[in-house]
Amino acid sequence: MCQKHYAYVRIFFPSLFVCLIIFMKYLDVVITLLLSLLLTIGVGYEDTIISVGGYLFLALIFLSSKQWLKWLFIFPIGLIATLYFQTGYIYGHPNIGIVASLLETNKREIIEFLFAIPIKVWILNLILLATFSYYLIRVEFEFKWRKVVFVSGCICFYFSSLSLFVSHCYNSTEHYIKQIDALKNSIHQSANWHILKAKPRYKTYVLIIGESMRKDYMSSYGYPINSTPFLATTPGILVNGYLSTASHTAVSLPRTLAISHGLDLHPVNNIITLANAAKMKTIWLSNQGFIGQYDTAVSAIAVHASEKKFLKKGNFLTNNTSDYALLPLFKQALAQPYNGSKLIVLHIMGSHENFCDRIKKDIYNFKDKDLSCYLSTYNQTDTIIKTIVNDLKATQDSYSLMYFSDHGLNNVSTIKGKTQLVHGDLYKQNYEVPLIEIASDIHQHTMLNKQISAFDFMSIFSNWIGVKTAQLPSLNVYQLPQNKKIQVLSGNQMVLFKSLKNDPDEIIQR
Ligand SMILES: [Zn+2]
């Protein structure tokens, strides 16, 4: 090799090597940045991504200076965050509702959830997994001032999205454990109702507890597609302004069906023990699960009923029972002879995700499958209510039926013409639900425009069944005082309903 060539090679290879090192460092920076963004989005802090994601990026850079720091700090929390990615991307950061849903979900629900995840989310999750592995194995930034770097790394981590994630996980789980303890203890307690007067007006009371039904998609509340034809015309009182206590079944219902003022719970003083104390026969029919499976919170109330039947039994593949299966059970309950008044509660699956699994047939057949099935579940619930009202009419006895939904949903789709409605707690529509009464002595279709909180449902209920107690005011929907400062349980705290954002309904183009 001549002298000139040798000089070239001597310069070329080292500079290639330097370029490669610079490129690798550059790649390391890019991957660490991508990892911090994905981790922040994946644990549900998209709206503050610049600040909390930025701190995470700096923390990841500083803490990479030592291998053991990465494996001790970043690995365990990052791994949990990676596993949480799909839930976080769709439902946001952890709150008591998400913790309850994750812990009380059965196998069938997990399968339904995994099938409903859009392909985009799976791809992002894979990219997260790849960048996370690369970071753990390859990324290492060296610094001179080791102690300063370590302290800076810890401070940045403290302000990062992952630290927020850990504290939200902790608070939510703590709340959830408190709630479960209160509910479990209540099963063995007896209520201390002090009954002043008990004079039920009707022979049969029916309470239908709906699921995930937003008021604004109901034609009875003005939606342009005829999603609830029976409720839109039947004589009854429709409350326009009823707000659920919270945004998830397991958090909302124990605060609706028992005394609660917010975070507190008094599960033993509930609708069933009140009706029992008023000498009514109480029957609970449910298409949702029983203790240990899906809906612990509600079963702790149901357990006090003199008769209860749960349709969700057997293994997860056979128990996707339709709400229609409740109808023969309802007929039997109605036919049982009883001298006093009866309370029959029906807890339906209603419009629970995934909507297409809830129905026999998609009756709308829109291109927007999610919305089409969602509206079909409305139609199904409408038909079920209609059938029950007809059964009640056929008895020729006096009756009253109340229907409400446990919470609403919000749309997370960013594609126009494609809806993806999920549980959430940031929008008004997560709480705006129907409250409807139909009775043998109500002959007009009335819309009552008034904001009423489901935290007052116990008062409404005691008035409905004609009971006065020392513990509760007994007021109907007309008598309840106007309250402009209604609060709802959003995440782990009580917030003013009017401070929430709007999530307008999507109207399908046919
Ligand atoms: Zn629910």
TrEMBL record:
Superkingdom: Bacteria
Keywords, comma-separated and alphabetical: Cell membrane, Membrane, Transferase, Transmembrane, Transmembrane helix
Transmembrane regions: 12-42, 48-64, 71-91, 111-136, 148-166
Record's bilayer topology term: Multi-pass membrane protein
Localization, UniProt: Cell membrane
Occurrences of domain Sulfatase N-terminal (ranges): 203-467
Pfam families in UniProt: Sulfatase
Family listed: Belongs to the phosphoethanolamine transferase family.
PANTHER family: INNER MEMBRANE PROTEIN, PHOSPHOETHANOLAMINE TRANSFERASE OPGE-RELATED
Protein name: Sulfatase N-terminal domain-containing protein
Source organism per UniProt: Photobacterium iliopiscarium
Taxonomic lineage from the root: Bacteria, Pseudomonadati, Pseudomonadota, Gammaproteobacteria, Vibrionales
